[in-house]
Amino acid sequence: MSWQRFSLRLMLFAFVLWAAGFAVFAIDSLTPPSPPPRCDGIAVLTGGQDRISAAFTLLRDGYGQQLLISGVGSHATLAQLGEPGIYRLSDRITLGRHAITTIGNAMEAAQWAHANALHSVIVVTAGYHIRRALVELRRAAPDVRFTAYAVQPPALRHPATRATAFLLLREYTKLLGAWVGVTRGNPMA
């Protein structure tokens, strides 16, 4: 077999592997969450709709004893997050203000989990973001058990559009980068 044929077959195999991985990723991103197991804490990674609301519901329903909202703006308050009845739980909520990337979220969540002696944490973020978040969280705190709770954002609740496809492709590419350890940017403000 010639070198050119071997190279072509190798490229074709790599493409098929990439496409199969993307298909699994896309299906996983669109799967609604099932109830998580009870854990010590809950960490929600901000940046999309419905994440904070889902995390508050989990906290209120007793799925975790403490809540970290990672990546909150420097001037944001709990009142601005707009969840009714949240004040009675405010002593169990930490606003993490330093993370500006997924890696920063992971570092912030790891520090919070260790500072509060948490051994298990439910992670709330978008379905397209959850796998990459778990990679970074497990890298930052391998001694903590992280459980996924993937929220379906509005963009993924409707029939597929070109924008949805590009979102999924971009996030799949970022996931592949996280798996091989490619990082970029300043993770903490």
Task: Give the gist of this structure.
The chain has 189 residues and is of the alpha/beta class. The protein has helices at residues 3-29, 51-60, 102-115, 130-140, 162-179; strands spanning 41-45, 66-70, 93-96, 120-126, 145-151.
Question: How would you describe the overall organization of this protein?
Answer:
This protein has 189 residues and is an alpha/beta fold. It has a single domain (3-179), classed as HUPs (Rossmann fold), CATH 3.40.50. 42% of the residues lie in helices and 15% in strands. The protein has 5 helices and 5 strands, in the order αβαββαβαβα. It has helices at 3-29, 51-60, 102-115, 130-140, 162-179, and strands at 41-45, 66-70, 93-96, 120-126, 145-151. A 5-stranded parallel β-sheet has the order 3-2-1-4-5, sandwiched between helices. Strand 4 (120-126), helix 4 and strand 5 form a beta-alpha-beta unit. Helix 4 (130-140) runs parallel beside helix 5 (162-179). The longest helix has 27 residues, at 3-29. The radius of gyration is 18 Å and the shape is elongated.
Question: Which structural traits does this protein have?
Answer:
alpha/beta; 189 residues; Rossmann fold; 5 strands
Layout of helices and strands:
Layout (H helix, E strand, L loop, with lengths): L2 H27 L11 E5 L5 H10 L5 E5 L22 E4 L5 H14 L4 E7 L3 H11 L4 E7 L10 H18 L10
Parallel strand pairs: 1-2, 1-4, 2-3, 4-5
Helix pairs in contact: 3-4, 4-5
Protein name: DUF218 domain-containing protein
Organism: Tanticharoenia sakaeratensis NBRC 103193
